Amino acid sequence: MADLTSNFIGIKSPNPFWLASAPPTDKEYNVRRAFEAGWGGVVWKTLGLDPHIVNVNGPRYGAIYGADRRLLGLNNIELITDRPLQTNLDEIKVVKRDYPDRAMIVSLMVPCEEEPWKMILPLVEETGADGVELNFGCPHGMSERGMGSAVGQVPEYIEMVTRWVKANTRMPVIVKLTPNITDVRKPAAAALSGGADAVSLINTINSITSVDLDLFAPEPTIDGKGAHGGYCGPAVKPIAMNMVAEIARDADLRGLPISGIGGITTWRDAAEFLALGAGNVQVCTAAMTYGFKIVQEMISGLSEYLDEKDITLDDLVGRAVPNVTDWNQLNLNYVAKAKIDQDLCISCGRCFAACEDTSHQAIAMSEDRTFTVIDEECVACNLCVNVCPVEDCIDMVPMQAGATDPRTGKVVQPTYANWTTHPNNPSAKAAE
Amino acid sequence: MSDKIFEAGIVPGRLPTEAYGTQFADLHAPLDAHEALVAADRCYFCYDAPCITACPTDIDIPLFIRQIATGTPDAAAKTILTQNILGGMCARVCPTETLCEEACVREAAEGKPVLIGQLQRYATDHLQAQGKHPFTRAASTGKSVGVVGAGPAGLSAAHRLAMLGHDVVIYDARAKPGGLNEYGIAAYKTVDGFAQAEVDWLMQIGGIEFRHNTALGREITLDGLKEQHDAVFLGMGLGGVNALGAPGDDKQGVAHAVDFIAELRQSSDLSSLPIGRDVVVIGGGMTAVDAAVQAKLLGALNVTLVYRRGRDRMNASVFEQDLAASKGVRIVTHAVPREVHGNGSVREIEFEYVDDQMQPTGETLRLPADQVFRAIGQTLTGDGLPDLDGRKIKVDAMGRTSVERVWAGGDCAAGGEDLTVTAVAEGRDAAMDMHKVLST
After folding, report:
1. Which of A121, A290, B332, B387 is the residue whose CA sits 20 to 30 A from A2?
2. Is the ipTM of this complex over 0.85?
3. CATH class assigned to B144-238+380-438
């Protein structure tokens, strides 16, 4: 078993799997169950000022399903904690006392003034919590009151509030970022210059998951109306990973610790976030879908993977970052062709339909339903691979240097050449 | 356990009265809405899908499954019924394991095809349960067509002709319409009076008159029909049954499997239907399996199905053979009947084993039997029919016979397998050709 012990900005936990600030971490009862199940840490659901907020009394979640009602995406309109501040503080204190080896982070959201922060931070410190996370991401309800993503969408506010918090606590400070912006590097940079110890991302994405076609109202529907919610779950993972990678590979932000969040459901998802530069991960929807026990698969899976690769957790963090680049750095001399494994092919013809109707007419279909790639037409777009229902049936095989690409009639070059030097690029610099 | 289970002879009520309902319950319980969604989601929506090619009626299977998957089962039903007006019955009785589901790429991939038959039933049941008929009749053409036989071929032809605006009269020898759907298929494949319900639903198209107890060669003649109608479709099936060709064939207790099945289907109280203790069914087709399985379900202690060739040559699919075996039917192959023994009533039946070339081996087998069902094929009967091709009516690709203005389809016509779905296709296609001729 690989050692999964995690040290994220000085906060230690037995594994890098934390529960994100969300409904699962709202109460002592839930958090105790989470720790019993094996979670390395929790970010306690966001505390705010009294009088505590209220939630709707109708449905709070909407969902997107895949086959067999597999939950692919969840949308929620729940707000921050709807319990008194002191109740939460008391519970945090006893849970931390009973689970001293687990990470206990407290999420906070108070108005955009220094006084409330000055007031709440000592109260949190007094619980023995290991750190705070600033909720600048919540996209619904709280944002209408000038908090949550309303702060997270203005880098100046992020910097200002982060600075207040750093000035008023000795605890490490994580700034949670909203994805509802155009360039995630800007709020991340603001957090960094405000003194944040780390950023966590992504918070949920503004969304309407579905429309009730009888009521003509978005779901979840509260008495005939719906409001946009925050989207999370497996569906948001690609968006979250890109944002994590954007920060991880930015020269000015390099070294800023990242807690990765967004649709992490399995050990593999977690490993991908870690490889893209996340120092640890936070999970919510997967736990809400399957319960806390999933962490056991995450622990065994990540451990087995690290053992197989013979690398440590720290070795994994950021390992894929150097390979995330801009399009203009991709090697245009790299030529591949699709190849269909006839032994694996089940002759469904999906590759043919996709290529013939929507791509390059590069797959031939015979009378007996044998599907073969026409190298003269294949641009190696990968769509056939993506629509094929059989794993590994279609492969993208690179052409060897020196061979002639039958599509272009050009010899495949052994050298690397990207767009910046391509003759079709008006601003290309000629290779000297 | 009923004390009648061991009683010799052909007696009713071998099972406790309450057992019959369970014994003859639906072979496949209908999919519920969620099961249908899960099953539908497995379809890959293949290009030029092999399942369509494998379906004698060319139902656009990927399309109807996608319509189910997107929550529009009635649209799915219309897709099915457009090609196959008896899609509900075919969903129940088609040997899908040798048709669409055998061709399903997931059968090739993992040995588990998409449940096409059950999905088809889900869609057609969904529509028909609401009493909705998705087709409307065209303006009357003033033409009249006589259809002989209210089985799958005749009903299919009649519906299509009526939909196109022709007036149709269906003549059937029996009291009820449906043909083999009503009289010739195992009860557990079409429970709750589905065959009649489907006919009633089909008749909603309008323009179809049904004349029962009217047989060709008995109450009506082909010449007479030609005089009364602008065109005639023959779809009367195979009325005759083959004899055993072994001495003692006429002993009491020896009967035709088709008659047994028909009697069972028409019975309102299965506990009153007598069945032997030791039943032997001779044959290797669907009728043989239907008879053998139902004999077992009625409480026969020992049921043996005896076929003259190997299992691979049986017309009954492997699924049907396995079904029979799972119900406790013993299958004996490579044996031909030599003599029926017994004093007035059958007591034993003697077989001789034959090799793959059907050559006698001299080895014999005697099976105790108080009831023997022959299921060794049906034949076309009747005089004054159009030219035959072998033992069936000769037809061209459009179903035209040697007689002008007379078409034929279904089991009575040459070509095609003797399946419900094939009959539906032939009836439909003949109707389209008749329409073309009648419109010129």
Report:
1. A290
2. no
3. alpha beta
